[in-house]
Design brief:
Radius of gyration: 27 Å
Shape: elongated
Number of helices: 21
Distance between the termini: 48 Å
Structural class: mainly alpha
Length: 458
């Protein structure tokens, strides 16, 4: 990244010379530092928002490719919190690259350097506005590709899914802020306001930053709500500690492997977190039996997807996850519950949770058996593909595990004692036992039809 930044600065110097105006560069760099320092630290899912892109876009026109590259480097060089040196180096280089790219693309799109000579609004739009939009899109794409690249190198996250996530989360706003950058440029040169335009543009910048902070606060509130709901499950059923988070992680990995979009991935991840919420409506004596559950107790336990959807129905941000929660115990062969759906009539997100549920159940230590190794668990899932589980989703999990490490879950003596001797409801053998009971499926289908807003044909 550092080498790329230097190459682009050198190319800009050869093609256009140094910064057009050193005084303007100082003002823009100061404003860039301000926008970087006050950026929202996190809007969830490790995505950060900064309005520095507005400054870099304006810099591409006002001080040229080299000036914009220097503004980008200066803006990201100031870090209020301690960060590893390699992180600071990457951020500085990325800022410089994006600034230089913006300046070079603006000129390549026939953007003019001589804004003062333009006559009329149409000329400004044609020779400044349109090339600036092209530069803005280029900056957005380069930013997404380079960030996805470093996350692939550092954490093994597939680039395609990360690019989609970045563009769907921030892309539209990123490009939209080009309007503010265009306003900044027009005020600075054609309107003759000069450096004072930096003061005037602070108002829309502040409003934009506030809007992103509101979005970030909403995302964090959703995450806290999910954490609280999961904590309530684990408080009632200590033996399930960590299960929801592990299933959510597996669901996210499989969604990436299946090429799902950002929204679909978030919905299946949320469903994975909350799929067992209905346990809160199950009597503790049924959850913690020291023996195998009888037929009546199995029926009570199997109602938990219905209870979960009933509990979550009024929470707006989980609406897209309700189908997956309702159907996560359906089987590919149609012998699951509550509706007995088969094959692709089962929502894809529910089929993903079913695979994640089974895999985590197998790789978790139980009072009645040792945990399966990941390889042994995958072999068992392949054996069940086409009957219990969707073969396509099982293959997606195998692809995901080739890129990620999975450790078996060993449990404490207390957790093993809390689970008793009854077989876990997510254990694949339990699914087989429930599948053999047509009376249970009929009862659950009638109950679900009465209580759920989710129907068999949904």
């Amino acid at each position: 990244m550092a080498c790329l930044a230097l190459v682009l600065l050198a190319a800009g110097w050869v093609l256009t010379g140094g910064p057009y105006d050193w005084g303007a560069l100082l003002v823009l760099a100061t404003l860039g530092v301000f926008s970087w320092v006050v950026r929202d630290p996190d809007i969830g899912t490790r995505v950060q928002i900064s309005l520095t892109s507005v400054i870099l876009l304006a810099s591409a026109v006002i001080v040229g490719p080299v000036g914009a590259g220097l503004v980008g480097a200066a803006s990201t060089a100031v870090v209020p919190r301690r960060a590893p040196l390699i992180v600071r180096m990457f951020n500085i280089a990325l800022g410089s690259v994006i600034g230089s790219i913006g300046g070079l693309v603006y000129l390549a799109a026939h953007g003019t350097k001589d804004l003062a000579d333009l006559d009329g609004a149409l000329a400004i739009v044609a020779w400044v506005g349109l090339p600036l939009i092209v530069a803005d899109i280029a900056q957005c794409l380069v930013n997404a590709v380079l960030l996805a690249g470093i996350m692939r190198v550092a954490n093994g996250i597939p680039m395609r899914s990360q690019i989609i996530k970045l563009l769907s989360t921030t892309g539209l706003a990123y490009v939209g802020y080009g309007i503010i950058g265009f306003l900044f440029v027009v005020l600075w040169i054609p309107a003759g306001v000069g450096w004072f335009s930096a003061v005037l543009v602070l108002a829309p910048l502040t409003v934009a930053q506030w809007a992103f902070r509101q979005y970030g606060d909403e995302v964090r509130a959703h995450e806290r709500t999910l954490d609280a709901l999961v904590a309530s499950i684990e408080a009632k059923d200590p033996a399930s500690a960590g299960h929801s988070a592990r299933v959510a992680q597996l669901c996210e990995w499989m969604a990436d492997a299946l090429g799902l979009g950002f929204r679909e991935t978030q919905e299946v991840r949320t469903a994975g977190m909350l799929h067992d919420l209905g346990k809160l409506a199950i009597p503790s004596r049924v959850l913690r039996l020291p023996r195998e559950r009888n037929e009546a107790e199995q029926q009570v336990m199997a109602e938990h997807p219905i209870h979960a959807v009933d509990m979550l129905g009024d929470i707006e941000f989980v609406r897209g996850s309700l189908d997956a929660i309702a159907h996560h115990h359906e089987r590919y062969d149609g012998r699951g519950y509550p509706f007995g759906l088969a094959g692709e009539k089962i929502p894809l997100a529910a089929r993903i949770i079913a695979v994640a549920d089974a895999f985590d159940a197998l790789t978790t230590e139980r009072s009645y058996r040792a945990p399966f190794s990941p390889a042994e668990a995958m072999a068992e899932l392949h054996r069940r593909a086409g009957t219990h589980l969707d073969p396509q989703v099982v293959t997606a999990l195998e692809r995901a595990l080739a890129r990620h490490t999975w450790a078996v879950t060993e449990r404490s003596v207390e957790q093993l004692a809390a689970s008793g001797a009854n077989r876990d409801h997510d254990d694949p053998e339990t699914s087989d036992a429930y599948a053999a009971r047509a009376d249970l499926r009929s009862h659950l289908a009638r109950t679900a039809e009465r209580q759920l807003p989710v129907r068999a044909e949904s």
